[in-house]
Amino acid sequence: MAHPSTSERGSAILTLAYVAFSVLGCGYIFLSLFMGHGDSGDGAHAESAHAAADGPAHVDYGVDGGGHGSASAEASGAGTFHFPFFSPLALATLFAAVGAYGLIALHGFGTTDTSSLAIAIPAACATAYAVSYLGWRLISSSRGSSEIRLAELAGASAEVITPIPAGGIGEVAAIVRGQRFSGPARELHGREVPRGARVTVKEMVGTNLVVFKGEDRR
Predict the structure, then answer these.
(1) Quick check: 176 and 156 in contact, CB under 8 A?
(2) Class of domain 150-212
């Protein structure tokens, strides 16, 4: 009975490794999508964290400063994509691609073990990068379509939903491009504004909207 040669045993082991990479990588990807963690650890999260770190993030508001809510302001500039090297999902995509390309090269095109690795690794890196970038673009575009830029609030009509005390902070809600934006607000001249009153947004200072009721004489 003929025994398999060293090269044949090496090819068999490499084939098993490719299969394992493919199964484990694809299994993790499908599990992540099923569990709803498809964007975990990706470049879009890094962008969101970077934007939140660029400016004031949180403020309480309401009469006597004891309000029931908060508002956050994000930088309006476009984010930059960074490949998530330590993302489990990105690594799973990389491993699955290595396994798939390796099997195609080794058994589909009959290449040698070394050649299959030389083909699979660069192709898998390019695939993982492309998939991560595509996911980042999709997430960024969906967030950008619903994000209200602060500059668009100037001149918008708003309703006072938490009374603004004289010289204090209340809360207003405005509709911009069909999106509702609510946040802490103070009256331009320090006047008291009751709940339900219509005001106009003049600008945003820090995390507070500056609004005025009636004609702005400044």
Answers:
(1) yes
(2) mainly beta
Q: Are 136 and 108 in contact (CB under 8 A)?
A: no
pTM of the model: 0.52
Query: How do residues 107-136 score in pLDDT, each as one tens digit?
Result: 999 999 999 999 999 999 999 999 988 887
The model's pLDDT over 18-46, given as tens digits with 9 standing for 90+, comes to 999 999 999 998 888 787 655 444 444 44
Q: Region of 82 please: left (phi>0), alpha (psi -120 to 50) or beta.
A: beta
**Torsion angles phi and psi, residue 184, rounded to 5:** -70, 145
Residue with tokens 């003929």: 2
> What are the b/e assignments for 171-189, b being 16+ CB within 10 Å?
bbebebeeeebbbbbbbbe
Provide CATH 2.40.50.140 ranges for the chain: 150-212
